[in-house]
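[[Local backbone shapes]]
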Amino acid sequence: MAIDILIAEDEPSILESLDFILRRAGWSISAVSDGDAALDAVRRLKPRMLVLDVMLPKRSGFDVLKQIRASLETASLPVLILTAKGQQQDRRIAEELGADGFVTKPYANADVVGAVRHLLGEDVGTP
């Protein structure tokens, strides 16, 4: 079965929340909790998009994003970055590395779902 969204998040409560709201919105989900596993899962599972935390064990979200953009196989994968509130520098770095969107933690569930819909091109025709 094809995976719609890969979540790379090391905080169990945030991962559980994201998994719940995205499944409830109708997408299939897979999750990993460190940067190395994120890169492996992107190559192996070929998800439609990646929800990527900046602060991950083993390899940061920035390193993961850099690797994804450097590979022809994964360069066009939509990536939604999760950043802690007030981390403008994280957002700037992620933009420079080619992130497609951002959600600031703590986040509203509707913001996450809306950002995912937008990056997957599923928001066409909604008011």
Q: What stands out?
A: The CA atoms of residues 117 and 126 lie 10 Å apart. The two ends are 31 Å apart (CA to CA). Helices lie at 12-24, 35-45, 61-70, 88-97, 109-119.
